[in-house]
Amino acid sequence: RTLKISDTGIGMTKKQLKENLGTLAKSGTSEFLAKMQGNDKDVLNQIGQFGVGFYSVFLVADKVTVASKSNEEEDQYVWMSDVNDFTIAKDPRGNTLGRGTEITLYLKSDAAEFLNEKKLKELVHKYSQFITFPIQVWSAHEREVDELEDEVVVEEKQEKAKQTVYEWEQVNTQKPIWTRDPKQVSESEHDEFYKSLTLDSESPISYSHSKGEGEIEFRSVLYIPRYLSEKFYQTMQDVKPIKLFVKRVFISDDFELLPKWLAFLRGLVDADDMPLNVSRETLQKHRNLRIITRHLVKKALDMFNQLAQSDPEKYKIFLSQYGSMLKYGAIEDASYRKKLTSLLRFASSHNTSAYTSSLDDYISRAKANQKSIYFMTGSSISEIEQSPYIESLLARGYEILYFTDPIDETFVEQIPGYNGKQFANIAKGELDLPDDVNTKDLEEKYKPLADWLKDTLFEHIEKVTISQRLTTSPIAIVASKHGLSGHAQRILDAQGQQQNARNPQMEMMLESLRSQKKILEINPKHPIMEKLLAKVEEESVPEDMTNLIQLMYETTSIRSGFPLKDVNQFTSRVEGLIRKNIGISMLEQAKVNVKKAEEKSEEERLADEELKKTNIIYDDDPIEHDEL
């Protein structure tokens, strides 16, 4: 079981074989580069400066021989080692190489996979795909040949026979486009290279091709994939977006060269100088990698901004796929928070199309003395547009941002503000408007009704206030400043259903949040509130009014996005209202006349017992079913 690797390089003399291969961690490359100080090292681009890589052959080989011929000597020499010792002797075969080196690995029994042609090609493609020098593998190919080659004339079409032939096949055909001047690489070349690098069938949305100079020289290429993987969020911790190369040789994709919020990008970094003779953990903390990371983040943000300015429609595609990741970055990374926030786009009451308004756009359209950025969260724009919370703001001419991404509410809670303006969730707390009217007189006037409503709805509400939000709706249900909006509560409930079975603490937290009492706001100009106030003051509230107020509270909860605590009570109240209006008593029930199903016969029961004995479970145990 031998594997041979040969080249037509400069070869080594007997002395060089001893110095370079007979001493652990002796690197011929580093010595060669030292001698070339002052010359054009960019042309050389050598790798292997650490001297320990060669000895990895003994992980898969019991013995290794290195035959080498240098122009500095007439004879060809062979270095041989079984890891314990080595010998150097004149090659008895004579000069078979002309010039160069041939390495022969005598593989261990458990390393036979390295004799597989496909495996060798995979290794070359992974680690040396972009090496300038051609790397060829002795490969088998099938060719069609004529079965009757000696016949001069054959009227009927000859059958073609297939013959296996062996020949050298170059594996590293992809060129390292990142080594070229970025201005000289076309978009189509980047598309082709991206597909080769990632095996993606779609072209990227955009790319960034740059060169880093200064303390460390490196080149980088970043790509934005057209679509986010369906399983991205489940596998985000294991994503390996950036490949690290050193002088075009692949080193690893395990290093965290990008923060998690940029893990959707794909690309590579090719550095000229990295300490590869250290552990992965040490290298991850190395100063050079930190410099590269800062450069990549800057180039990524520049790429996003340029895309936003040059192609707004394509930028909408980008945000539809990756906008949540930018918000995640703004939450997690304060150093990039303002830049990331400026890159976001939202729908609003000014333009309900998704990803159209930046926060700068919103502020430019703000009203005089407006101190807040008003927003409303919901599962869709249509849901938000039907919400009672937006009535007064829209009537007064204020613009409202429409947040429909599940992460939006968490995002704004972590952002102190933007360009001097604070975010204001119009579904929570008190609404501070520049032109607020004084409600003291109205509060005094409606105090009897407020007290009655608080007593009637004591299980649900903390207090009753005069609303600044409403124009056409009679009431609104508002969370406290530090409470959960209806949209946020629905999201947490959905998450809790998946997790609370495994996490009792999560269920306790959710239950605590669900039980928080809300604020009931009343519209003093609505006829229902005016009539109710009069009834309360006259002490002539109808007996069934309590039930109707409960029903109005529940319907408003639904409209405000809050889940109902007791759906059965709600449906009973709706049914009761219908019964009353069409004159049917609550005591009158449906006439039920249903025939009961027959019990099993003795024969069927015995058959079931026999079936149990065979232990067949068709749904849960398909293996036993197949065996039977």
What does this protein structure show overall?
The structure is a single chain. The chain has 628 residues and is α+β, with helices and mostly antiparallel strands. The chain has 4 domains: 2-115, Heat Shock Protein 90; 177-309, Ribosomal Protein S5, domain 2; 345-436 and 481-510, Rossmann fold (3-Layer(aba) Sandwich), CATH 3.40.50.11260; 443-479 and 516-582, Up-down Bundle (Four Helix Bundle (Hemerythrin (Met), subunit A)), CATH 1.20.120.790. It is 37% helix and 18% strand. It has 23 helices and 19 strands. The strands form 5 sheets. A 5-stranded antiparallel beta sheet has the order 1-5-2-3-4, with helices on one face. A hairpin with a 2-residue loop joins strand 10 (242-246) and strand 11. The radius of gyration is 38 Å and the shape is elongated. Residues 25-30, 40-51 and 619-628 have low confidence and may be disordered.
